[in-house]
Design goal:
Blueprint (H helix, E strand, L loop, with lengths): L4 H16 L3 H17 L3 H6 L5 H11 L8 H11 L6 H16 L1 E8 L5 H15 L2 E8 L6 E6 L2 E6 H18 L2
Parallel strand pairs: 1-2
Antiparallel strand pairs: 1-3, 3-4
């Protein structure tokens, strides 16, 4: 996946600053929450690039988002720097890259598990333990439900995707039938 040089540099700077201030774990949690909030805004980058929205308005928006943060916290100073340098449209990529650095340094695997319905805590633990054992790493297991997969599951680990969903199997059957129909003509 393409990562802009801007995102890489700013993420590394945030990582080093958080490491220096001894607040890496706290910063990872805060950036994860901020990223989740940004992802809920459909076209964040477009909004932040829009010429009719002033830097002051963008700053006010982030001051509202970060109102629970102390005035001089690293996250507030960092967002202020990004706003000042007019790089705010890159914030989602910067945060993702920061979290990637953090996970790499901590030896964590980011795993997305998608199921058709919510799974029990016991199943969640079993899946996490299985992945930790087979990948020899600690796992951050995020769950997502998607009724469209009908049943089964999809696991995404790093750049690997294991699709054991009913939807995928039905699509494969449909393709086989279409191919067989074409070959029989």
């Amino acid at each position: 996946m393409y990562e802009s040089l801007i995102a890489v540099r700013y993420a590394k700077a945030l990582y080093l600053a958080a490491e220096e201030e001894n607040c890496l774990d706290e910063m990872a949690a805060k950036t994860q929450n901020l990223l989740l909030g940004i992802n809920k805004i459909g076209s964040f980058a477009d909004y932040m690039k829009h010429p009719s929205i002033s830097t002051r308005q963008k700053t006010e928006l982030f001051n509202n988002i970060l109102k629970s943060e102390k005035e001089n916290s690293l996250l507030r100073r960092y967002i202020g720097l990004i706003l000042e340098n007019k790089r705010i449209a890159h914030l989602p990529d910067i945060l993702r890259r920061f979290l990637k650095y953090y996970r790499e340094k901590k030896g964590l695997k980011d795993v997305q598990l998608t199921t058709a319905s919510k799974i029990s805590e016991k199943v969640h633990e079993n899946i996490r333990d299985f992945i930790e054992k087979n990948f020899n790493a600690k796992v951050e297991l995020r769950e997502k439900t998607d009724r469209d997969i009908i049943g089964g599951f999809i696991v995404e680990i790093d750049d690997m995707r294991i699709d054991a969903s009913v939807r995928k199997k039905l699509n494969n059957i449909q393709k086989s039938l279409e191919k067989a129909t074409i070959n029989n003509k």
